[in-house]
Amino acid sequence: MNIKKKGIIFTVIATLIFGITPVIGKMTYAMGSNGIQLAFLRHLFVVPLFLFIVVYQKLSLRLTKQQYLDVFKVGFFGNTLTVVMLYMSYSYIPVGSATVLHFLYPLFVCLFNFLFYKQTLNQKQMLCLALAIVGVFCFIDNTSSSMIGFVLAVTSGIFFAYYMIGMDHSSIRNISPYVFNFYLVIMNTVVIFLLGLLTKSLSIMPIEGYILSAIVAIFASLVGVVLLQLGIRCLGASLTAILSTLEPITSIVIGFLFLGETLTVLKIIGCLLVLLSTFILVKNQTAAGE
Fold this sequence. Notes:
Layout: H1 3-27, H2 35-44, H3 47-56, H4 65-89, H5 95-102, H6 105-117, H7 123-139, H8 147-169, H9 177-199, H10 207-235, H11 237-243, H12 246-258, H13 265-289
Family: Belongs to the EamA transporter family.
Keywords: Membrane, Transmembrane, Transmembrane helix
GO cellular component, one term: membrane
């Protein structure tokens, strides 16, 4: 199996995980949780897991000064702020709508690459991007979206675009995904904990809330994050961003089935457009690798 096919598989699995876990996470809101607390627990619960993996694989935790700087910049601005803002948006708008607005980030990724790295897209990639963006806009439910939730979700997409660009164009490419995420979850745990104290957002939940939060943590912060980073390394930020538009489809469907969120004809059309863009992209990448 060539590297592009591996990248496609890694990215698809990661996006399915990222599409399901927000629905699981929002279930904890009825148990006394909120966006900041969920973000804190998501990272706290995987700190020992990443430490175990790093020790078990005998990976070195030593980084260069530039790598430490990149870990902080990409981690804080690209990951910490993304998670906090996206999870906070769930308190104002449905998970499906928030995920869709967040998924304007492929547009920001391509824009940043064009402005700062002079990268161009071929015709098929431009077609995939256009179809994906049109499909994403079909998901937006203006009647149920508050301005606060809208701004939080879109801003999370901007920061996540920075995260993907940083992963693709910084010294982090040369760091083990497990070592990078070990430092990342420690930083996020401390920063979000302090944010929770300042905003008085941390509270006690029933045991079910912590179990659901742990499920979100393991799959989103461990399995999903590592697979997405591997996908970026195999495909690059722009192609991974376009392929990742499978995530809002997953959130829409899961939100409809388990949270009672609406699934309109327009959203079905959006699903079809995103699937079409993904099919064209995968076919194009597979052919290029043969």
